[in-house]
């Protein structure tokens, strides 16, 4: 099983990421499938019957297209096709802040150590680091900064308000 970072630890991944072009039979044969958005569009009725289901969106696919269906997904994976494509940072914030999604948000694709801290600030809580990188090394990046000044999905209050609350 591949390794992922989840809940600030490296664990074996029990989910099965299906590729674009897979069939409905492929998805139904897996205990915990993460299906591409196109498969969901074509077979949502059948896929809703699965006890655990994940969906993944490519960088050009918008979160707004699955908002009504969010209760059916235990996991939303957001694909970063290249390191320089950061569109899904906004998608993760929308999921957490606007749509109050409480399930797992996983970064997949070209995910590198340098991005993890900022991904967490946007609402990601799981990371499938690129296959040629060490997830144990990448995990260390989540502890490199001890204080954040701005509010974000992981800590909505800015530092000056957090300090004011501590001194009161």
Could you provide a short overview of the structure?
With about 170 residues, this protein is an alpha/beta fold. The protein has helices at about 25-30, 35-45, 85-100, 115-120, 135-140, 160-165; strands at about 5, 10, 15, 35, 55, 75-80, 105-110, 125.
Walkthrough of the structure:
The protein has 168 residues and is an alpha/beta fold. It contains 6 helices and 8 strands. The chain has helices spanning 24-28, 37-47, 87-98, 113-122, 135-140, 159-167; strands at 3-6, 9-12, 16-17, 33-36, 54-57, 75-80, 104-109, 126-127. Strand 6 (75-80), helix 3 and strand 7 form a beta-alpha-beta unit. The model has no long low-confidence stretch (mean pLDDT 94).
Fold-level CATH name: TIM Barrel
In angstroms, what is the radius of gyration? 17 Å
CATH architecture: Alpha-Beta Barrel
pLDDT < 50 stretches: none
Question: Strand share of the residues?
Answer: 15-25%
User: Which overall shape is indicated by the principal axes computed on the Cα atoms?
Assistant: globular
End-to-end Cα distance: 49 Å
- The SSE order reads EEEHEHEEHEHEHH
Structural class based on helices, strands and sheet pairing: alpha/beta
Please estimate the helix content: 25-40%
Strand order within the widest sheet? 2-1-8-7-6-5-4-3
How many domains would you count in the coordinates? 1
CATH superfamily: Aldolase class I
Average per-residue pLDDT, rounded, comes to: 94
Tally the helices: what do you get? Answer: 6
The CATH class is Alpha Beta
Q: How many strand segments?
A: 8
Q: How many strands, which pairing sense, and closed or not: the largest β-sheet?
A: 8 strands, mixed
